[in-house]
Amino acid sequence: MVCSMMKKGVAAAVLAAGGLFLAFGTHAPSYVRTAFHKVRQHAKDAVDPQFDIDRAREEITNLKPMIEKNIEILARAEVDAEHLERETTAIQANLATEKKDIMALRDRVASGVRVTSHGEDTVTELKGDLAHRLDHYQYVTQLLEEKQTTLKAKRKIIKAAHDQLENLRTQKSTLLAKLASIEARLRMIEATSAKNEFHFDDSALSRAKETVNELEERLDVLARRAEMEGRYAEGEASASSRFVDPGRDVVKEVDKVFGSDSRGDSKPGDKTL
């Protein structure tokens, strides 16, 4: 029965494909892809934007376990690197001491004998001791180089991990800020849509504006009239405005402001208007 249903399904698919090919020819795959994309886009547009916002926020939150896991690994790597660095430092110090002993023993081998508490060592024994020390020194030196290479690689990996964590933290903060901006924009759009549901009569507002404008114009006229009355009115006010303190030397004040040469070619005998 299952085989029969599968055969029917395959046959239906073949017939559908054949119908598309007869209808659109070689362009049938393009039509199918376009139709699929349109259906998918319509489905996405039908989803509430708030749902996608919540989904995006959840995806950003899911980054936290990954960040914490890598922080734990990075902390262990830094501790291992610090231990390895202290170990290499100690090896370097030991090698420096061994080098001094080897050089001292070399001088004694060159002299032929070495005096000890049990007597004198032969040259052969001295050479054997020197060879053993030298072999050990070279082995430890090679071991030190390997540890230093490992330490250098660890430091490089640690730095790359720090950079990745910092970049991830920055990207996470940027995504959260962008998501907050999108949500605020959505709230504003929703508020605008709700506002558009109300219908107000603007005639009352127009009448109020007209009254205020008329009052403003009236006050402007009153202010301008008061200004003109003060400017063109004759009488005691204009006479008093020309009163000068007898002790005030206006000529000196003019010379001080404009300079004594500001009179140009005028002479004392010239008449003034």
Keywords:
elongated, disordered C terminus, single chain, 8 helices, Helix Hairpins, two-stranded antiparallel sheet, mainly alpha, 273 residues
Structure overview:
Helices cover 81% and strands 2% of the residues. With 273 residues, it is mostly helical. Among the domains are: 13-46, no CATH class; 63-178, Helix Hairpins (Orthogonal Bundle). A hairpin with a 2-residue loop joins β1 and β2. α4 (63-111) packs antiparallel against α5. The radius of gyration is 50 Å and the shape is elongated. The model is unreliable at 235-239 and 268-273 (pLDDT under 50).
Task: Furnish the topology, listing elements before pairings.
Blueprint: H1 2-24, H2 28-45, H3 49-61, H4 63-111, E1 114-116, E2 119-121, H5 123-195, H6 203-232, H7 236-240, H8 250-258
Antiparallel strand pairs: 1-2
Helix pairs in contact: 3-5, 4-5
Amount of beta strand: under 5%
Helix percentage range: over 70%
What's the Cα radius of gyration?
A: 50 Å
Q: Describe the global form.
A: elongated
Alpha-carbon distance between the two ends:
128 Å
Mean of all residue-level pLDDT scores: 76
Low-confidence stretches: 235-239, 268-273
Question: Strand tally, please?
Answer: 2
